[in-house]
Specification:
The structure holds two protein chains of two kinds. Chain A is mostly beta strands. Chain A has a single domain, classed as Porin, CATH 2.40.160. Helices cover about 10% and strands about 55% of the residues of chain A. Chain A is built from two helices and 14 strands. In chain A, strands 1-2-5-7-9-12-13-14 form an eight-stranded antiparallel β-barrel. A two-stranded antiparallel ribbon of chain A has the order 10-11. In chain A, a hairpin with a 4-residue loop joins strand 8 and strand 9. In chain B, about 35% of the residues lie in helices and about 15% in strands. In chain B, helix 2 crosses helix 4. By secondary structure, chain B is α/β, with parallel strands linked by helices. Chain B folds into two domains: about 190 residues, Collagenase (Catalytic Domain) (3-Layer(aba) Sandwich), CATH 3.40.390; about 30 residues. Chain B is built from six helices and seven strands. The longest helix of chain B is centred in the C-terminal third of the chain and has 25 residues. The chains are: A mainly beta, B alpha/beta. At the A-B interface, helix 1, strand 1, strand 6, strand 9 and strand 10 of A face helix 1, strand 2, helix 5 and helix 6 of B.
Chain lengths: ~200, ~260
Amino acid sequence: MSVARRLWLGLAGLMCLTPAHLFGAKPKSLEFGAGVTSWQLMQLTTKPSGDRNTTGTSFYHLHTQYHLPVGKSLISPWLHYMPDSLSAVESSSKSSRTSLLALGAPYVSNLSGVFDLSTGPVLLQYTVNGTGNGSETLNNGESSSVFLQPDQRTSSTTFAWQVGSAWNYSSFRTGADLLFQGPLSHTKRSFSLMLTAAWVKS
Amino acid sequence: MLNRVTQSSVIVTLLLAAGTLASDGAFAFTLIGAGRAVKGWAGNALELHVNTDNCPDEVDDLMDKAIAIWNEVPTLGILLKRGDDTRITIDEALAGAASITPTVHCVTSMAAVGLNPAVIPGVATGQQVDSKGRLNYGVLILNAEEGAAANVKTLDEELVVDVIAHEIGHILGLGHSSDTSALMYYDASKRKKASLAQDDVDGITYLYPRDELNGDDPFGGCAVIKGQQGRATIDATLLALPAFLYLLTRFLQQRRRMRKA
């Protein structure tokens, strides 16, 4: 189990044991934690048949967020980051590593003492880091062909829209958000699930 | 009561997390090229032109479905389209003399192009690169040989779409993948659905990264004026997000009024 998985499960487990002392997202509070993004729900396959999975590819990340009071609501910028070396998704041939950096600035509204709703724009940087250094001979049906491994680093930068909610208790906050990618596109529309658990410092 | 709500929410969160933990796959995309990997086609759009001679009647529909599979990738920075049909022959295309490219052809003799008609439903060939390593030529061949086991006219439609999408992947510069779930895996015999694996998404993003901070339309562009194949389109799901946000705002406003009262 990777370090990021252990971190995330550890935080989530800790919250199960935490006495519920309930309140919404706190103004001027800073939170640190970890999370996982299930990238492209119901879009990708991991089966030879091509049947699509319900869940997407898991990207683990460290989480930090600040709750800035604006009137009676909050603007709460957050950053999700994970160093390549710690938890990037690595190819089976070790020729590429993929990572996801996300920056959001949602509007957060405390709905009750228990949970809050958030919605806002998100900037996603999806990086494919080619770490191969040579060629690979692969079957082409009748014989074999020589293909080349990726050796460059490229990043795709896209905007998404976040809609979600978070539960607050004691000094912890856990959130579940949907990220809508390509919401204005006819062809590129897809969505991802983002789960986060964090410790809140007032 | 609130304790129960809290504990239940944590359990739901953990179950969702467990679902995501189980979904990791294998990734191993490669690229075509000789000694040096290609860099993909220049520009932010590419049209594929079909010579419909000998092709299945529904070849345009099959092409559109195959093209849509790649266009769905949210991190893809190139828009694929089916261009106008062409009269360029397979001989002209293979000779590297086609005036427009890439072209798609259905051939009635796979042996004439050096392929086994029994097992090869399609192939991408003739790719050429310019001095900067960018692709600028390609030919997509589909098997339409009478009586051949891999004739696309006799295969299941979903499989043909899968084959065409795979060959378009080669036209775009991708090589084969060792991931058995990938569209770019060489063997399509187990495929029931034409779909992409994470490996395919990584490969195509590597070649054509989308950059919405520098030129590409933010939030994927506008569906109303940039529908598939350039047709103006709009559908219910496009309205779902703003409708949800509107209802959410109304709900929050209502709640505030009740609090004040």
